[in-house]
Amino acid sequence: MDLNASDDSPRSFKKIIYFVRHAEAVHNVKEREAVQEAIARGETDKSQQDEARRAVLRGDESLRDAPLSEHGIHQVSTSFESLAALTSSKIPRPEVVLVSPLRRTLMTATELFGGKNANNEEGSQCRFTAIEMLREKRTGLSCDERSDLETIRAEFPHVDLSGLDGTDIPPIGEDNIAVRARTAKFLDEKLPHIEGNYLAIVSHKGWLREFRKTLKSRVDEGRIRVDFDLDKWDTTLYDNAEVRVVAMRWQDGELTSVVSRSVTNALSMVDDGFQYSLGPPSSGFSMFLAHRTTKVHFIVHAEG
């Protein structure tokens, strides 16, 4: 799949994208236990708890590119059932699944979108592609380092690894601002040119957080309009294995509008036109949507 196609696309186009955070991984369990122990010791300050969380991960090579926990696998199964209700009769399954090359995201994407059956005639028709730009912030901790290509290829033979060619590899020690810049580059240079009208993006809490901050900055600049079913959409974090259905429209090569819903809310409103919720190209927004659903929050200017 060519992720760097020339920009000869129509003046206005739309993509429906399933944004997904990976399910609980083994290192997430260790982090949670460390925080609970810190609280039990009377360490109530968040900075103390964060240090306890990081300390349990430092130097633990058993957590390198950690897999999903047993509970994480159950989380994906639950998300799969919810998503199946939507994709079986409403919005199509993704044609392309873009995924971070870490084991926890690859496992989540595979379980959620049927990657194990990708080569079967009766299996998934999704194309799976690993992209470095979707990685979690490279903290220097072993849990945030991916496996070598041979290991990934052996475990996930259905995933196209051609994009892991040594370019776009984030530097170790990058901060949140650097991750945000990475999400902006993906939004501007990669996402509009990916073939397919229905996509999935499987990434990490930090990446998804900074992606929303990128959207928020463009709302503040008046460049785009967004419509989320969340009151504090720009600061609310994704839960493990959470799936959100997002409609995005581009006009003249620029992203102009974003409509984001939980799977449940997308399912309840899809017959009222979720797939067409971005309105006509001239408006680039879901103007009629407000009359057809509850829990709509139009975010046009910065909130106080």
Automatic annotation (TrEMBL):
One cellular component term from this protein's GO annotations in UniProt: cytoplasm
Source organism superkingdom: Eukaryota
Molecular function via GO: phosphatase activity
SUPFAM superfamilies per record: Phosphoglycerate mutase-like
Cross-referenced InterPro entries: His_Pase_superF_clade-1, His_PPase_superfam, PGM_Phosphatase
Gene3D superfamilies (alphabetical): Phosphoglycerate mutase-like (3.40.50.1240)
PANTHER family: BROAD-SPECIFICITY PHOSPHATASE YOR283W-RELATED, HISTIDINE PHOSPHATASE FAMILY PROTEIN-RELATED
Record-given protein name: Phosphoglycerate mutase
Native species: Ditylum brightwellii
